[in-house]
Each structure stands twice: as structure tokens, then as C-alpha cells.
Amino acid sequence: MNKSIFGGYHPLVNFLYFGYAILVPVFFVQPVYLALSFASALAYSVYLNHGKSARFGYGLAILLMAVSAIMNPVFNHRGVTILTYLPDGNPLTLESVLYGVCMALMIGGVILWFMSYNAIMTSDKFIYLFGRIIPAMSLIISMALRFIPHYRAQIRRIASARRGIGFDASSGGFFSRVRCGGEILSVMVTWALENGIETSDSMQARGYGLPGRTAYSNYRFDSRDKTLLCVFAVLMAASLTAIISGAASVQYFPMLIAGTVYPYAQISYACHAAACLLPLALEVREDILWRTLLGKVTTNESV
Amino acid sequence: MNLFEIRNLTFTYPERNLPALNDVSLSVAAGEFVVLCGKSGCGKSTLLRHLKTVLTPFGERSGEVLYDGRTLGSVPQREQASRIGYVLQSADNQIVTDKVWHELAFGLESLGEKTPVIRRRVAEMASFFGIQEWYEKSVTELSGGQKQILALASVLAMQPDVLILDEPTSQLDPIAAEDFIETLKKINDEIGTTIILSEHRLEGALPRADRAVVMADGQIVCAGGVSEVGLKLKELNDPMLTAMPTPMRVYLALEDQDKGGHVPQTVRDGRVYLEGKMSGGADSQRFVRPCGAHPPLRGVAGMTTEEPLIEMKDVWFRYERDGRDIVKDLALSVYPGELVCVCGGNGTGKTTMLGVITGENKYYRGRVRVFGLDPKKSDGRTLSDAGLAVLPQDPQTLFTRPTVFDNLIDVAYACAKRRPDSIRGAAPEAAHPATAKNANHITPEEVEAEVRRVCELTDTADLMGFHPYDVSGGEQQRTGLAMALLTKPKLLLLDEPTKGMDSFFKEKFAAILHRLRADGLGVLMVSHDVEFCARYADRCALFFGGDIVSEGAPREFFSGNSFYTTAANRMARGLFPGAVTADEIIESIMQG
Amino acid sequence: MRRLPKRTAFATVLVILCIPAVIAADVLFFHDRSYYAVSLIIIALAMLPFALVFEGRKPQARELVVIAVMVAIAVVGRAAFFMLPQFKPVVAIVIIAGAALGAESGFVCGALSGFVSNFIFGQGPWTPWQMFAFGMIGFFAGLIFGRLAASIGAPSRDGTMRPAAAGGAAWYDVARLGWNVRARKRVSRLRIFVLCAFGGGITLALYGILLDTAAAVMFTQDGFSVTTLLATYISGIPFNAVHAVSTVVFLAVLARPMIEKLERVKKKYGLYHGNAHE
User: Fold this and answer.
1) Pair (C136, C47) in one structural domain
2) Is some CB atom of chain C closer than 8 A to the CB atom of B260?
3) Domain range enclosing C71
4) Which candidate among B272, B416, B432, C17 keeps its CA 20 to 30 Å from the CA of C169?
5) Which residue does chain B place closest to C65, by CA atoms?
6) Given C58, C73, C102, which residue is the final one in a domain?
7) pLDDT tens-digit profile of B399-428?
8) In whole angstroms, what is the distance from residue B90 CA to residue B49 CA?
9) pTM
10) B482, containing H or E segment
11) Cβ contact, residue pair A198, B55, below 8 Å
């Protein structure tokens, strides 16, 4: 995966962006917002994610969108515009179909946003952000993340050690396999707990538990973070104002009423789209910049 | 000014009769490099843990520890945390967080330092130790040596006056261990940090130390300059003498007092000494009489007519289809009663080779036979039933039960159930129709007798009631060995068995192996420990690039190498070409 | 165990006042339509007091390490069975952690297991719900089975000392210790059975219902109704059944040895009784 430019910004900026991008469609179910969110989420996730995990993410998104688009009209019979009648005698309404589509966009959007979130908000960013608010729990998270790969390797070692004295978990009947597997886990748990005590000794030896612990991080809030944060703040505020004031409100049932106030609504759509697409724009700009720079280098070399 | 002053410290762990520390008095001056040595279980760790309040064990205590002129208990925790640095044995256990940079900052965070201060100190540490390249990495990606350096750096970031290290190199390979000790010396020289180091691998540590302290049974045997301690040990005829570096041992065996004011500690000094010693003597090109620790049990491979236990021919193995070949065109055989040592550097694939033998790694070309079975097609149980046992590097990976006894019984019981005849020594009456019905019924007495036999062999009888994690590392190793032996092996595979063993236990371990080999057990051992291989092996092989590049009896093998060989051989090169152990040099000179 | 009453009080106020306030605000400002959003806020508010109490207590290093170990084991366990959907040991391990370490640590262990495992499997809209469900399971396990852990741990021979009769290398009696292990197991088999039943039940009742409700709310929001809810529950039955069965199986296999191990570590290292320094 190529290194993300937006991921290089301060975690606070990253977190604000994803907080906005994920929560707004969840709280504010408005077709234009949803469509814009979905489109930006799709674009950004395609830019950031490749490979197997991405395929799984898209599969999940499509599945959940389908469920949602079907479930709503099937179970929701409100709405005045009746299209046809379902086999169970209930009406299928245009409003519920539209609502189902909107829900599908919302859910798909959220899944896609999370795909980008997972690519950018790495664990240490989270630990940094919450290290001051919930220090003990962020430390647990950090330790657990260190233990996990360590334990996986240990499980492999234990399995091969047990195999070496004749307890082979990969052969024998089902129950003997399960028993061998259970024993491997049991060895692992003892090992983890007993050796964990030494870890806590090491923490105490380095002063853990003294009052006034601080949280250090590599991240620096510099001027480009400040600029981006300001731009985000303005765009998001404009978009949120429109939501709260009801300038772009919408009602689905009993009939679709878009209480759009011109031109505020249009401005808020633009702001929302801009906020959602800004990181992608930054990435693309950087790519172009490097391509031209590298292009110059190669032409210089060839001359 | 003494940084630490220990006065008449006596300490007993709860529910134990004998004190772990008995009237220990010791002072450590600021800026000193002190090496603490002694048999494992002699109280080194207990003593070191008394030098920091948060690590001090619970128990009955008398006497006092002064730090910087004050009793340690009265020194505030904050000051102790920063000024007394403590590095534990296992780097893996010591590291708390998942990222290298966070680990470096951990102690400073605890002290409540502000971000700019931490940033500077962390940067300093990273530059001093050359951590820049892996600064952003996850801890999981580091090698063992890197992890131990990280553990050290994260303590040093707090700018301690004194560094206390409890056997920090015991889990490292010799090269990483040497680098680590060298780094400690650099810290001591360039920053002036006082260093108190407990070690069992003394070849690297002693030449760099200002002072050595020898402990035994919770008491200090002697303390002082390294030469002085050596002479004192000789005077007392203390068993620790055999743990000293080869040049010291040779010198001390031949001389009664310190002649040149200095007992040689390094190979270079040892050579100078030997050359001086020999220049007056007669012919230097004398033949070395074999005087290995144990007389060889079997001849070199090919001399015997027995069927080999392992037979490998042109074996190739790689982990992935497109990966690199880890084992390449390998040929190796092991015969009954033989101890074969495969030496070689880190990451050359020695452990992978063991995996090929156990069937865990499936070779893709060539031929492997273990007791005539193809490990690729046999599962772990079949191979174990045929007589293959493996002692893993870390015996902790074997312990399923809460006592040593339960662990042993478990293995013995499982094996007895699977192979009732093995426990009865293939008793002929099993075929008898009258007893055939009971042939599969194993009585507790039979299992008990079997466990008792193995316990006597491995000297684990008095560990029975303990939790396997409550006994020392050497005792855990013995328990692991006992578990492996309870499967009644005919072939034992050992993966770095001497890692973390002190020199006494190595000797004991070799004696146990010797006894087993007399009954026809074949042993294949993979090891970095050149000294051990030279002393005890029947055959040594150098593993490099996936293949065995040279092979032979220890003497020809090591005297043919010039770098990858024992300290004794390097020291006596040109003088006694065949000598590979300290005893051989001593013997040759004494007889010459 | 000392708690900061101020924090506890604050936490209680938070739950009692804020949750109704959120619902009221929803009805007033959003015209009772953003079920999903409101439920998210409620979950966050419900988890907050646990976090506050835990953080306010300034847990000592050993406690943190033990919780982190349990979280990591839960996550590794989930990863080990990833190919079997819903067949995962997380609930079982969280219940064991709650029973052995207490309600509060049980909650933290559960919530963080949910969170940390999603660093590997991917965070998503389900994360807060999973955290809450696992956390509550750990909490209830601690409340109900706090005593059980001690009773299971008690008869274990933790072997911190030599046997009383041991005069040096005194021999162990195989018949007394080796084979009587099975007899000892029978004694508390009933308790393990109760624990398993609890595990299966709470997996269905709490985890299953909560996550299915979350799914229904998320899919339909405005169209949220009893029928959609029922439809979701029905479609979720096979998954929840597998999950419950796996929890029972894992508890049956793991509960005794793991609780024994945790009790040993607690006893040997004075965990939850020790003193924080300075």
C-alpha cells in the first residue's frame, strides 16, 4: 500500500475527519448527503485499500446494502404512493423503497468509511489520542497489541514442542485433537500469566504508578495540521449548521418532502462534499506532485 | 563514595528453611563495572532485587542496603525509578508497549516528563544505540539482540546513575551477547554509569569488569579485582574456577601466584602468556593427548556397522513455494549412542533442519528416514512411538500441569497407555494368553516406577511438589528433559539446550547425556555453544547456507577452523594445534 | 478495594440523568427518528462510568498486565477460530476473567477484547455494540461468579511450597495425587455446569439480542418496528446458537484450568491486595 498523505497528518485531524464522515450520515438521513457521503467513501476507500481485505470489505458492504434495501420496503408499509401489493397483502410503497435505498447508502457508506478509517487510524494514533483521557485502558490496549503476535508465535512453539514428545494436535481422532489443542492453550495461558508478572515488574521498575504520568507521542501539531483543521472546521460547521437549522431537512413518511431551503442547502451540500473529499484531494495532489518531480528527475538524467 | 553499600543482609523467602542470602556485605563504588557470578540459584538475582525497593521480594530480612548514604527504603520512589536502572533477564517479558518509540518513552512518561524533554531524551537514546532504523517499528519485528538493546535503552533513557542487569544475555546467541556486553562497556566508559551485572557467560564479561564478586549458597565467596578473585578461587579450590574464561583457567592451573601482575583474561593475553611459557620449553609442536571429558562412546560415522537412527540424503526444504531454500542438499546421519552437534550462526536454518526431522517441515526433495520412517508421512505420535523425542529450546512450552510431578505423570501415563510394552521393557509374558487381558491395563505402580527411574536419572526428585514456574531455569530444563525421556526415546533432538545454563549444570547435563548414550540413545544437538560441543560431542558439524559444510570429530573439526572455534583453540593455535579445551592445554603443558 | 466515591457518584448521575435526557432530546429535536444515533449515544454513556471508575482507581501495574493478557488471549482465540463463523472463545474467556478478577475488571476486559480484536478484524459500526455486550457479560460474570472463582481456586495444589511431608527427596504418592485428580474434579463439576449454563444463556440473551437489535436498528432506522426486530432475531438464531454452543464448549474445557491459573497468579503475586507505591 502506498503511504497515505492524509495519514501523515496529526491524529486529531484524522479523527475529526472520520468522526464527521461516519457520524453525519448516521445521524442525518438525507438523500443528497447520503449520496455524497457514499460516493466520497467509495472513492477514498478505493484509493486506500487494495487486496484481499478490501475485497472482503466491499463484499460486506454490498451484502448489507442489499439486506437493507430489501428489508425496508418488505417490512415498512408506510407511505402514500403504493406501487404494488406484496404476496402477504401488504402494500409496497415508493417512500419505503426510497427509504430503503437511502438506508443502503448509509450502511454502505459507513462500512466504506470504516475501511478507510482502518487504513489510516492505526492503533498508535488511537492510543495517542486517548492516552491522556483513559491512560490505564490505552496502556492495556497497547500491551494487548504487543502480546497478540507474541502469543501466536508462542502457540506455534508450544504445538511443536508438545508434538516433539508425542502429543500431536494435528493427528489422531477428533477428541484427541481437541484435547491436544486445549492443552496447547492451557500451556499458553500459564506461560502468558507467569511471564506477564515480569512485565509488570519491568513497569514498576520504570516508575509506573507514580503520580503525574504523562503521555508522550511522536506526533507534532504543526502548521499544515492547523491549516487543515481550520478548513475542516469551517466546512463542517457550515454543513452542520444547515442540518441543525433544518435547511436541508427531509421527511420520508407518509410522503417524501424535501424541505430544502435554497441556496443554503446547496451551499451545505457543497461544504459536505468538500469536507468528505478533501483528504482524497490531498492524496491525489501529492501523487501528481511526485509524478512531475520524478518526471523531471528522469528527464534531467536522460539529458 | 560508595553508591551502594550492603551491610550484613540476610534474607529468607517465605516457607523456606534456608536463607537465600546469608550475611552478605558488599559495596559498589560509583563508576564501577562489577560482575556478579556464581552457580544458578546461588542468590544472585535475589541480591540484585534488593537493590531496588519495588522489586524487593517478600520474606524475612535483616541487615540493610544503603544507596548514596541513605537507607534504600528512605529514597523516594521517583528518585529510585529514575536513578536505579534495572534490566531483567528476558527482554521479551520486559518490553511493555507495542512500538519501539513508545517503549523508549515509557519510563519518562511515568516520571511525568514533558513531551519536549522526552523527545530529546528518546532521540539521544536512539542515536546512541543506533536505533533510528527501527525506531518506528513494532516490537514484534525485532530480533532477540535488538529487543535486549531496546530494553536497555528504555532504562537508560531515564538517565540512571547505576544499571543493574540480571543475566541479560542468557537468551541471546553468542554474537548478540558479545555485542550487548560491549555496549555495556561503552556505557560504562563513555557515560560513567555504574554497572552491576550478573552473568554466567564469563568469557565476555570478566575481561571488561573492574571487579568480580563470586557467590555461592547465598554468601559471597570472594570479591575484588578479576585477577585477585581468580587467584583467591584457586586458593580456595572453589568449583567456580571451572566457569572462568579459558585463559584464566590455563594460567591458574599452571601458576600459583600472579606473576606479571595480571592474570590473562582475553585470548590475546592468554596467547602472550602461553608463548612466554613455551619459549623456554622444548619443542612446541607436540601432539596433544586426547583428554576429553568423556571418552568417545562410538567411532566417527561410517566406522560403525549399525543402522543409523536418522538418515538424511540430499534434502531440500523451503517454507514457501517461491521462498528461499532454507535446507539445501543436506546429508546427515546419526548412529545409536552418538552425540552429534550441529553448530552454526543464527538464522542459518539449524532449527528448521530439526523441524525436517520431526516432520513438522515437509521437505520437497531428497530422502529422510527416522527409524526407517519417512517423517513427511508420519505424524508426531507415530514418530514418538518409534522413539523420537525433542527437547525444545524453552522447556516452559511443555508444562501443562500445576506441579512438576503432574507433568511427569501425564507424559508417563500417556506413553504407557499407548505402548504398554515399553514400560515393561517389552516383557515376553505380554504375549502369554493369561496375561494378555491385562496387558493393556497399567497400574499406578508401574507408572510410578518409571517416573522414579527417570527422576533419579535427571535429578528432579526433589522438585516434584513445585509448580514448574516456581523452580529455577536449570531445574525447568531438567524437568523438560525428564518429560522427554519418559517417552522412552532412542533418539533425542536438542535445540540449543545449553542456552541459559551455567557451567556447572552444563557438566551435569553432559553427564546425564553420557549415561543415556551408554544405553544406545543417539543425540542430535543444535547449538551455538562451541565450548560445550568441543568438550562433549562425538562428532561436530558446521551448518551454513542450508548445508553441512564440514564435519568431523571435535578435535579435527575445531582445529581445522580458525574463527569458529573454541577460545582454547584460538589461544593455543600454533603451539598446540590439536588442543580445543582448556584441560587439554593444561594437560599438554604439565606433561611436556 | 477502595473506590473514589466522587467518581462513582458522578458516574451514577451520568447514567440516571443523561440517558433519559438523550432520549428526550431525540424526541424533541429529532422527532424520535434517529434510533441508531440515539442508541450509540446511550451505549457510550453506559460505558463511560465503568471507564471512569476503572481509571479513577489508578489500577496497579500487575492488574493491568493480567487484564491485557486476558484480552490478548481472547483475541488470539478469536483469530484461531476465524474460519468458523461465530465459533469463538471470546465470551468464555471474558466470563472467566470476570469470575476470577471481579466485575469491574471483567467489564474492562470484555470491552477491550471487543475493541482490540477489531484492530485485527477491522473496526466497523458494530464495534461499540460488541464492546458493550462483551463488557456487560464480563461484568455480570464478575457479579454472579466472583465467589465461584475462589472456591475453584482454593483446592488447587498451587505448589508454592514443598509438600509438608517432604523430607528432602520424599516420594510422592501416585495413588493419592495422580489418580485422585479425577475425584477432585467431580466435586465442583456442578459449579462448572452452572457457569457453562450461564455462559450459553448470556451469549444468547445479551450478546445475541443486543447485536441483532443493533443490526435491526441500523438497517431500518425510521422504519424500525417489532416485525423487523423479530425478523432479525429469527434470522440470527443459527448464528447465535452456534455462538452459545461454542461458549458452553469453551467454558467446559477452559473454565477450571484457567480460573486455577488466575487464582495462582493472584495469590502468588498478591494481586488485588497489593499496595500501589508512593
Assistant:
1) no
2) no
3) 60-160+169-268
4) B416
5) B96
6) C58
7) 988 888 888 888 888 888 887 766 665 444
8) 15
9) 0.86
10) helix B473-485
11) no
